[in-house]
Amino acid sequence: MKFKITKPLVLFSALLLSFSASALKSDTQQPINVSSDNQSLDLENNIVTFTDHVVITQGSILIHADKVTIIRPNANDGNGKEKIDASGNPVTFQQQLDNGKLINGSAGKVNYDLGAQYLVLTGNARLKQQDSRIEADVITYDVQQQKMIAKNSGKGRVKTVLYPSQLQQK
C-alpha cells in the first residue's frame, strides 16, 4: 500500500491506514471548503485560525471542530510545511474508503506536523470502522513509517475490538 499526503486536511485520512484500507484517492484532488463563525489571519506569523462551529470538507472528508489553527512557517524557516492543530468537544471526522466503507474518529485535540508527517490524537481518542474500533487517551501515527501507537496515561487500558471479516470485505 502506498500513500501520498498532498494536502493538509488529508491528515485525518492517515489514521485510516491502521484499518487496512485506503482513503479515497480522489479526496486529495478536491477543493478544501472551510466554514466557521469566525476566522482570523496573522500575516506576519503565517497563522490562520478558524473558530466556533468549524466545518471542513474535502471530497468525502468531513471534519467538525471548535477551533482549527493552521501554521505555515516562513520561507526562511527551512521546513516549509504546515502544522495543523484542531480542538473540540470533540473534534470529529469521517472519510469514505476506496471500498465504500466509512471511517469515523474523534478526539479532544488533533495535531499534525506535515514536515515530520506525524499525527497525534489526544483526549479520548477513538477510531471506528463498522464495528471495529480503537479507544485510547492518545493515538499517534507516523505517516512515513506507517506505525500507529495507542496508549493510556496510567488510567485504564487501550481498548481494541476488531472484526477481521468486516475489515477484509471489499
TrEMBL record:
The keyword Transport is assigned to this record: yes
Cross-referenced InterPro entries, in alphabetical order? LPS_export_LptA, LptA, OstA-like_N
Q: Can you name a GO cellular component term?
A: outer membrane-bounded periplasmic space
Q: Name one GO biological process term.
A: Gram-negative-bacterium-type cell outer membrane assembly
Q: What is its main location?
A: periplasm
Per UniProt, subcellular location reads as: Periplasm
Per the UniProt entry, the signal peptide is 1-23
The residue ranges of the Organic solvent tolerance-like N-terminal domain are 33-147
UniProt entry keywords in alphabetical sequence = Periplasm, Signal, Transport
Q: Tell me a Gene Ontology molecular-function term this record carries.
A: lipopolysaccharide binding
Question: Belongs to which family?
Answer: Belongs to the LptA family.
**What quaternary structure, including any partners, is listed in this protein's UniProt entry?**
Component of the lipopolysaccharide transport and assembly complex.
Function, as annotated, reads: Involved in the assembly of lipopolysaccharide (LPS). Required for the translocation of LPS from the inner membrane to the outer membrane. May form a bridge between the inner membrane and the outer membrane, via interactions with LptC and LptD, thereby facilitating LPS transfer across the periplasm.
Name this polypeptide is given: Lipopolysaccharide export system protein LptA
